[in-house]
Amino acid sequence: MGKLLPTPALKRDDSLNVKDNRTGKEYTVQVTHNSIPATFFKGIRAPAGPNDRPEDETERGLRVADKGFLNTAVIESSITYIDGDNGVLRYRYVRVYVTVATHPEAYRRGYPIEQLAARSSFLEVSYLLIYGALPSGSQLSHFTSEVLLHGPIHSDAEGFFRSFRYDAHPMAMLTSAFSYLGSYYGEANPSLQGQDLFTKAAKGDATALQNMDRQIFRMIGKATTLAAMAYRIRQGRDFVVPPTGMSYTESFLYQLDHLSPTDQLSGLQSYKPHPVLAKALDILFILHADHEMNASSTTVLQTGSSLPDPFSAVAAGCASLYGPLHGGANEAVIRMLLSIGSPKNVPAFLEAVKKREKVLSGFGHRVYKTSDPRSFIIRKVADEVFAVTGRDPLLDTAMALHDAALKDEYFVSRKLAPNVDFWSGLIYRAMGFPMDFFPVLFVVPRVVGWVAHWRQMMLSPSGVKIWRPRQVYVGPSTRDYVPLEERKGAAQVGIGMEPSVIEHSGMTKRRKLAEASDKVRSKL
Ligand code: CMC
After folding, report:
1. Are 141 and 109 part of one and the same domain?
2. Part of which pathway (predicted)?
3. 193 and 112 both lie in a single domain
4. Are residues 187 and 236 in the same domain?
5. Domain end call among 90, 118, 146
6. Which of 58, 218, 307, 421 would staple 48 via disulfide (CB 3.0–4.6 Å)?
7. Whose CA is closest to 247, among 209, 214, 291, 286?
8. Which of 301, 322, 343 is the endpoint of a domain?
């Protein structure tokens, strides 16, 4: 397992020729792992043409424009491999340099998500993602005990959670909670300790490596604690200390649902979550643990690239994940199904989607173009959960929507299939979680993927380069400042060209009226 096979003797010219028709010059670039460095284009320069503006910087080299990162590889990684065209997801893909003809099995070196979901556990998969191999028994028990040992949090944190408004979204609490958590650990802050605090681990500094792993244990261990606190504050319940002797997901369910020592089910630690629900959550956590360069892991790396403490980077990841196009989609799916109301309304809803009046949440994916392999596993988990919780009536609408969309030319031609979020919300709902808690249930396992990527970046032998992309500037060229009294009329016309006129609250109106009546009185 994981052994690199020798480079094949087969020779091929792995390069690309580019001709710049503006100058007639030809350039050659090496192709490595079927990619070329974007900086290659910077060497392709031409004199400014008749249509070029000075801001195009034509003489300073060609830029690569990729709005939305449709085809830009931002990092070399060996954590997760996705083959979107074939619906494949594997954790810890090992690149093997052989030809398919001689070793057809050689390209199948990652652990298929189906096997991990069926046979592994969330913390074992976490170990795999972070450290690169399935652990031995003693490695797993060391990692498990470190993670669970780091579950409890300083009692000060209770005041932090209580400072939120009664109706605060749990994601607002969790996002700020990770940042808040970082404030406890000055030893993990490169701004305080020196900017090579973590990166020197790549040069073999064992203390730096230990420091990094300590923060990783903390973040995974406390993810459930913070999430449970965000939940309990909304329920008006006191916080509980994480239990001992339970798995990661059992402990999470315990922290969410344990009531009090006087509660019949919760007597001290005798409260045990239902095994089917704990197992289902464990599988869901495995499926959500990592997904290579998605929006939130990219955000974690982008933030981490300027070398803040890792808690800040994870907080940034939470903010990115929360959006309805990413981890907020599970919440959006349920809101959508509720708005559709019943299977008979599905055709009208799909027509509205096709007219772009509505969004079909839980369908489509930037990478998967045939199917999302996680969605098949999750369908099975859903049945197991429904068998103990009872069937959610929304499932009929979901099934009708699913079946109709998969037969409809509009969705088929755009290769839109259900993604993991189409089903996960239904499971969370059946398990009795409030809708706005669904993205939190995505964040908790994804912390593992984020820290695995962050650690990999810190350990990069070539060091960490700040992620500072370029832009294509299309705004005005130089113009002279005009004094206010010489400016005539509206400066610009068009959507978004000036601050909006907004409605003020009743209180502001009353204050304005009071001020106005004051002025009237002073004139008398
Ligand atoms: N409903 C209707 N049309 C869609 C959808 C959808 N959910 N998704 C994509 N399309 C259309 C899109 O309008 C475009 O059509 P056209 O070519 O006619 O303009 C075409 O399909 C290609 O889509 P795209 O916008 O280029 O796709 P993208 O890669 O930029 O966006 C996505 C990917 C996931 C943001 C998008 O599919 C989407 O908004 N889906 C709904 C939200 C959702 O379920 N997100 C969870 C993703 S999976 C979990 C995760 O990783 O977080």
Report:
1. no
2. Carbohydrate metabolism
3. no
4. yes
5. 118
6. 58
7. 286
8. 322
pTM of the prediction? 0.90
pLDDT band at 269 (very low <50, low <70, confident <90, very high): low
Q: What is the CA radius of gyration of the chain?
A: 27
Q: Give the Å distance between the CA of 139 and the centre of ligand 1.
A: 40
Domain that holds residue 51: 15-60
Task: Look at residue 524 in the predicted model and tell me its pLDDT.
Answer: 54
| Sequence letter at residue 373 | P
Residue at 104 is within a domain: yes
CB of 420 shorter than 6 A to ligand 1: yes
Task: State whether 91 and 135 are in the same domain.
Answer: no
Q: Clarify whether residues 88 and 44 are in a common domain.
A: no
Angle between helices 206-235 and 248-257 (to 10 degrees): 30
**Are the CB atoms for 279 and 252 separated by under 8 Å?**
no
Task: Judge if the beta carbon of residue 277 lies within 6 A of ligand 1.
Answer: no
349 inside domain: no
465-518 pLDDT, tens digit each: 999 999 999 999 999 999 999 988 767 778 888 889 988 888 888 888 888 887
Nearest Cα to Cα of residue 424 among 285, 252, 217: 285
Quote the CA–CA distance of 225 and 236 in Å, as a whole number.
16
Distance linking the first and last C-alpha atoms of the chain: 92
CA distances, 172 to each of 290, 304, 321, 328 (Å): 22, 20, 12, 12
Q: What is the mean pLDDT of the chain?
A: 91
**For residue 231, is it within any domain?**
yes
Question: Residue 132 is which amino acid?
Answer: G
Alpha helices in 106-205 (DSSP H): 113-119, 122-131, 137-149, 157-162, 170-182, 190-193
Is residue 68 predicted with pLDDT exceeding 90? yes
What pLDDT does residue 99 have? 47
d(CA 173, CA 177): 6
C-beta 322 within 6 A of ligand 1: no
Q: Do residue 27 and residue 84 come from a single domain?
A: no
Q: Does residue 265 carry a pLDDT above 60?
A: no
Ligand 1, pocket-test mutation among 419, 426, 441, 442, most atoms within 8 A of CB: 419
Same domain, 51 and 131: no
How many domains does the chain divide into?
A: 3
Name the helix (H) or strand (E) containing 26: strand 25-30
Q: Mark whether 277 and 183 lie in a shared domain.
A: yes
For residue 54, count other CB atoms closer than 10 A to its CB: 11
CATH of the domain at 194: 1.10.580.10
- Residue 513 inside a domain? The answer is no
187 contacts: CB under 8 Å, gap ≥ 6: 193, 211
